[in-house]
Amino acid sequence: MSSDARRRILIVDDDDDFATAIKTFLELHGYEVHRAADSRAGVIMAQAVHPHLVLMDVIMEERTAGFFAVQNLRHTPGLEQVPVFVVSSVYAAAPDFRIKPEKAWLAHDDFFSKPVDLTALLKAIAGRIGGDGVGALAPNPGKTK
Amino acid sequence: MKTLKLPKWKLDLFAAVLQRFGDVHAPVARGDEFVFQRLEHWSDARLDYTRTIVPPKKYFLPPKEQLFTYDAHGYHPSVTGLEKRLVLFGVHACDIYGLNMLDEVFAEGSYPDPYYKARRRNVAVIGIDCVPDEYCFCRSMRADFVEKGFDLFFYDLGDYYFVLVGTAVGDDMVLATESLFEAVTAEDIELYKRHSEDKVALFKTDLELRHLPEIFELEYQNKMWDELGERCLACGACTVVCPTCYCYDVADTVGLGECKGERERCWDSCLYSSHARVAGGENFRETQADRVKFRMYHKQRGFVVEHGRPSCIGCGRCEVTCPVDIHILDVMNQMREVAHVV
Predict the structure, then answer these.
(1) Cβ contact (<8 Å) for A97 and B12?
(2) Which of A32, A95, B117, B297 has its CA 20 to 30 A from that of B239?
(3) Residue from the list B16, B179, B180 with its beta carbon closest to the beta carbon of A68
(4) Which of B39, B177, B179 sits opposite A68 (nearest CB)?
(5) Which residues of B fall within a CB distance of 8 Å from A107?
(6) Mean pLDDT in runs of 10 for chain B (342 residues)?
(7) Residue B16 contacts A, CB cutoff 8 Å
């Protein structure tokens, strides 16, 4: 059973190295972090841990898996409103694929291209669900208030 | 009409972005058959499907819906879900033709249906070309091509889709992913024309429509209807799967001792014995033969009088669904034979 004392974040990403790095980084900043390695597992795990926020990759078992997983979360009772940040290299994989305006499409709340700017990501997470958002790895903690 | 092309390898990206316009529904496999439902993964979509069990009419005329509630203060229209935006991806031309016919009945008549119109407004339709199987006779019914009723229409031309833009919403979809689409060339247009010509040869079933309304008029008393009535089980399956069968029943539910209630409508079938029964027990279509005949006449003759063409679109659903093999093609060909007009 997850504790309510800490903010819970679910990382849905099939890249072990990336997921491990982000998980470690966020745990150092006081978040409770769970991880699923594909979009189907991500939706199931979200139902189990009820995260305060989801970090969703796009290109997983399918090239658009993350985009559809966001919609699946929106159709899951109790998870309709959970904030979802898409963290993806889809722009690098499909260079002529761009979305206008970048942050106004689909049902996610924010979009971060990989390689992700950890400071910006942490700031966005803290701004959205709270938590200290600052720590030893954050280079400019003063800007995260 | 604006035309564009979309390389096939970009289709999944386009479908993902479509979610901006609503939940994306598409044909998916259910056993050996297909149904329209919300896509949970793009790979679930089966754009090579033959036909879905139930046509897209279910999105516009739900099998059962509450119309309004009422109490001592008046009535309160039910609007829940009417504003929900959907994208139907992969609708065949014949089914779009069927929707256009439902539009004539529910959206364009003297008394437009606000529930139907709201759903039609909020459900985007993306058509896709198909390969006819042995049950398809949409070409005979002139329903193998549509010039309206869709927002986008995709034709498979090998490595890419030739895309017709039908509405401003379709244009918005293209603009939302502008970088995915490309301009068509003269060669693309030539290929599209050849593809359309080649498709004609793929139809294995043909039906001669000439004089059918007149033949129906003359053969009203034919014994063939009694034979069909003997065979028909009155299961109503053909009406459920028909894209243009729209008969419904309306019922009120009122609580005992309460000054409030609700009114619902649900699909009905003219093949049910209760369909034409009225207060006092009188039934205008007493026998199953009467009911089978009524359905055929409404499709092939009554609709012609009102709307200028039969309401059958040749999708083949009733052909594959009838448990006792009553085939509309056989019925119509038999009609020609008994009338000595072949």
Answers:
(1) no
(2) B117
(3) B16
(4) B39
(5) 19
(6) 94 89 95 96 96 97 96 92 94 98 93 96 97 94 94 97 97 86 95 93 85 84 93 96 96 89 96 93 94 92 88 95 93 82 58
(7) yes
**How many inter-chain contacts (A to B, CB under 8 Å) are there?**
58
Contacts of A105 in chain B (CB under 8 A): 17, 20, 176
Give residue A38's region: left, alpha or beta (phi > 0; psi -120 to 50). beta
For A124, phi then psi, to 5°, come to: -65, -40
Q: Which residues of chain B lie closer than 8 angstroms to A67, CB-CB?
A: 16-17, 19
CB proximity B7 to A under 8 Å: no
Angle between helices B11-18 and A65-74 (to 10 degrees): 20
Q: In what order do the strands lie in the sheet with A32-36?
A: A32-36, A8-12, A53-56, A84-88, A110-113
The alpha-helical segments, DSSP class H, found in chain B are: 11-18, 57-60, 93-106, 114-122, 168-176, 186-200, 212-218, 224-231, 237-241, 288-297, 303-307, 317-321, 328-338
Q: How far is CA B148 from CA B127, B132, B163, B194, B197, in A?
A: 10, 21, 14, 22, 20
Residue among B47, B119, B54 at smallest CA distance from B82? B119
CATH superfamily of A3-116: Response regulator (3.40.50.2300)
Dihedral sign, Cα of residue A41, residue A44, residue A45, residue A51: positive
For chain A, what are the domain ranges? 3-116
Q: Which chain A residues are closer than 8 Å to B13 by Cβ? A: 63-64, 94, 97
B87 touches chain A (CB under 8 A): no
Is the pLDDT score of A135 beyond 70?
no
The partner residue sitting opposite B23, judged by closest CB among A71, A94, A96, is A71
In this prediction the pTM is 0.90
Q: Are A3 and A45 in contact (CB under 8 A)?
A: no
